[in-house]
Task: structure prediction
Amino acid sequence: MDNDPMGELKNVLKKGRGRSLIIIATLVVLLFAFKPWVQIGAGERGVVQNFGAVQDNVLNEGIHFKIPIVQTVILMDVKIQKAMTDAASSSSDLQDVDLSVALNYHIIPDKANLVYQTIGVEFKERIIDPAIQEVMKAVSARYTAEELITKRPAVSTEMQEALTSRLLASNISVDAFSIISFSFSQTFTDAIEAKQTAEQNALKAKRDLDRIRVEAEQTIAAATAEAEALRLQKMNISPDLIELRKIEANLKAIEKWNGILPEVTGAGAIPFIGVGDAIKNK
Result:
């Protein structure tokens, strides 16, 4: 039986190529099965664990390789998050106060491994909400109910500073804090409204009194000025001034006379103005 060296070589090559394809396919399957890489998305950090032990390094955004079976990566959201919380507390004058606040916060990115290690992924329920409740009660107890309204910016700032200090110890940063609303008992609300109404009425009464006082002062000043003017006029009156005024009046009458003497005579006749005086002067 003749041997065909070329045929045998082809068979060997075919078998070798088949094995290579099998090996490559097996590697591809294993690659996707064990997935030796991890993708960290925007606003996330990766916490590396070696057989469950949290490592010091924190993975940034992008693709990173990991050792299959040995390493696992936990994704932590480090974007700004919002928490809204309601709390019931008391003011320093023992008024019941219901508060509603909003808090913006985020995990400090390079401390994400510590947050996961000490708190876990449920840090809002375990740390954020209890901290807000405690701070709201502690701060509101230092103000009267009325001050909580009139000094709202100061109250909000004090709460934010207290929360910032408290949460920073847990590697959580506070970005913003705001008080959404205060609400009090209906009795206290009615008392505040009555007080404001009384203050407004008192202010209106004061304005009216001020207006009356100013008007009275103006009237007195006008009367005083008029009296002073009359006094000065009396001081300036003399016999010569009176005679001068009479002469001026006669001259005006002469200027208006048309040269015709009045025809009416008798006891009821009107005398010719200034004639007697003119004769005396002659």
Summary: Residues 92 and 144 are 5 Å apart (CA to CA).
